[in-house]
DNA sequence: ACCTGGGCTTGACCTGGGTTAAGGCGGAGG
DNA sequence: CCTCCGCCTTAACCCAGGTCAAGCCCAGGT
């Protein structure tokens, strides 16, 4: 077992026999990425995903008119991949970029489907992952519906303290749905009020 | 089989043997709701869900400070229930209200778990449902990130033509994340531009 | 026919965030 | 050491949408 820690983490989502984990490791490949390197680019087939072993990634959606917005940040222990496109069998519309020199464990979805056919535990895990993702997106929806940009900012840092100092300001802004200018203003406003 | 149409619809998501469907119908109960009646209210246990046979529902989240925002509308063939709260085993934070005299088919989650243990097809269906929900929420996230209120409005009617005339304006506004005043203005602006 | 109330519209005014453009600042490379 | 570049901040101006309040329209009830 090359990654016992990862195994423990995944096993908290759904029961996962160690021997199945060994099979999974057999089909996985490690990959290193430099800062700014892309794990996936728009147009790529959404036929693989990875677990972050080290580093931070941003999922960027480039809109038709060129606007960039950020769907999520992902750090150690989390999954990266164009999940929605994978489910819909569409090419990726997302760029996934390393914000630091990073290290990931890559799976081909095809190999993973093999695993699923071998043992139900993988199916159950996939379900948990889908449910987890759903809960997170719904929380985000809620934030857009009833919180101001400033409130979203506060909540962001409450929920992602481990990202402090690892992601540029402008990306936080693109995640919150505002410009970096607006974010800067919000922060100076708060500084003033705080003193 | 009391609801063959419903069966066909669900079976498109995942293979579903008819005899399993019969078992499901055995534990389901029909329920009728008057206009404005609540299928679920905030604070209720999130231990049941339903399929809409007839009518339209709105999922309302009442925020701590009293603001109302709308998470989704659901019409014939769709699921209603406090899904996120069910997954997290939390009491419902959502009110689900009939906008018309309606008719639904109710399942207790407990009974459904029984079905899951009897046959994997239900587990697979649950996974598909989770994935489906995720894709929808991600699409909505995208809309908040890169579309103006007016663009969201246009898209809303493109994607939900069957709701035309069935839901009050103010609810559309609450779904888009704006006030009914703003929505009214947007509409008159478009009327002017169109002539 | 008359009230009443709910839902939509309109207007006046305010505020938050977008846009553009001009600095400031700190770190990497010459 | 200086310069350049990437990143952040600040300022000026504009516009979308929020808020409050007054009206309008119409369906239902009397």
TrEMBL record, chains A, B:
It comes from the Bacteria. SMART domains: cNMP. It holds the Pfam family cNMP_binding. Signal peptide: none annotated. InterPro entries: cNMP-bd_dom (IPR000595), cNMP-bd_dom_sf (IPR018490), RmlC-like_jellyroll (IPR014710). PROSITE patterns: CNMP_BINDING_3. Transmembrane segments: none annotated. Residues 12-115 form the Cyclic nucleotide-binding domain. This is Crp/Fnr family transcriptional regulator. It comes from Corallococcus praedator.
């Amino acid at each position: 077992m090359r990654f016992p820690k990862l195994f423990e983490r995944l096993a908290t989502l759904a029961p996962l026999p160690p021997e199945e984990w060994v099979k999974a490791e057999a089909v996985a490949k490690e990959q290193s990425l430099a800062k700014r390197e892309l794990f996936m680019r728009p147009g790529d087939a959404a036929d693989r995903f990875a677990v972050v072993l080290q580093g931070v990634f941003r999922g960027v959606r480039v809109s038709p008119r060129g606007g960039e917005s950020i769907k999520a940040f992902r750090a150690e222990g989390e999954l990266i991949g164009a999940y929605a496109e994978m489910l819909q069998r569409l090419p990726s519309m997302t760029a996934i970029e390393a914000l630091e020199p990073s290290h990931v464990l890559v799976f081909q979805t095809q190999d993973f489907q093999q695993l699923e056919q071998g043992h139900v535990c993988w199916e159950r895990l996939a379900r948990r992952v889908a449910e987890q993702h759903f809960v997170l997106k719904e929380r985000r929806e809620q934030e857009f519906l009833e919180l101001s940009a400033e409130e979203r900012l506060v909540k962001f840092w409450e929920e992602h303290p481990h990202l402090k100092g690892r992601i540029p300001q402008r990306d936080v802004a693109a995640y919150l749905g505002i410009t970096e200018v607006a974010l800067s203003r919000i922060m100076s406003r708060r500084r003033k009020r705080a003193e």
